[in-house]
Amino acid sequence: MIRDFGLLEVLTILQGMWTTLALSAVAFVGGGIFGTLVALSRTSAWTWLRITSAAYIDFFQGTPLLMQLFLVYFGLPVFGFHVSAWTAVAIGLTFHASAFLGEIWRGGIQAVPRGQSEAASALGLGYIDRMRDVVLPQAIKLSFAPTVGFLVQLVKGTSLAAIIGFVELSRSAQIVASTTYKPLIAYGLAGACYFAICFPLSRVSAYYERRFAPKT
Amino acid sequence: MTYKFDFGVLLPYWPQLLHACLLTLWLAATAVICGFIIGIVTVVARRSGLKFLRAIALTYIEVIRNTPFLVQVFFIFFGLPTIGISFTPWTAAFLALSLNCGAFSAEIIRGGVDAIPRGQFEAGAALGLTPLQVFRYIILTPALRIIYPALSGQFVLALLTTSIVSSISAEELTSTVQLLDSDLFRSFEIYIVATLLYFALSTIFSLIFKGIDRAFFSYPIK
Question: Which of residues 140-169 of A touch B (CB under 8 A)?
């Protein structure tokens, strides 16, 4: 039976929006933690660490997110981890985010003038103090706008979880579209929900980009 | 770990995989060219004196940039037929990719155009060039030189985005390997191979853009 597009359908889509937000948050926090490690490896003094992290970043930037999700989804059971779609997608997106955030923050760290970390060394600060108190606070400010920009990409990227069958915003729109046979409204509404999340973030990113832009 | 890897099952299918790679490259290349043209037109519209043209261009850019590609594809392929506009999967994929690439290119090109000092436009006008000539020689070419790295990065991203059109069963690399997967049940191996193929394709794509950079944007200007 074809159902009408009623309150229940709208609620289904809104519920999906909530899942999308949760998934994005998990991936962003996880990606942030590993991304910090990637950025620090990328700027480390050890050559092999720099090369490994560069290869890691290249791999994630040179292959489609969909393939990365498939690899995690089909790969984890091969190694004996039988996890839910939710966990697989969260892990896949975390890897993806860590590579991109790592590259963004590497840029931020390297944009901090060298004299800063040299001065910190001269004051007798060790690596951890130097990073935590001198370099990273400035790097964070410099890379704030691109980080928020990537968050928009990440929110949009979570939609690919729908292809694996994980029920988030896009998948709920798909379900609603097929039960009501009103794909135009269902996908239109889903698009509007994504827009409601992403547009404010894009504005914030653009605002800080202007604010922190080098004066010309 | 008891799983035995077997990449050998994929060997007899290499002509299919090669064909799929070429389809993906073809889809990406046509969509990128089309998207680039859309991007330039959008930038012209955004700078035009007509308010409604500016509004349309801005809405287009913001809507495309702030919604996922998957939803855009679904909207075009599943949504539009209900109001009587229907496409084959391939056309829908091409259209969605071009529109997507167009919006992102427009934003990048706009950044480059904004970086051209105003005095240049005025100098062009003072030399008696038509507005179109000013746009082409004085704005677009130097702007392209500035934004070329960002733009080619965006185009490589468009190539990776093509994998998503497998969800409307447009024939390209991802949909081909999904079909193989349903025959062979060797998901992990198949997706490893597919991922490596994509990596190779994106490397080829960026090499092509490096070549274009050498040929057209290196100093001295020919």
Answer: 152, 155-160, 162-163
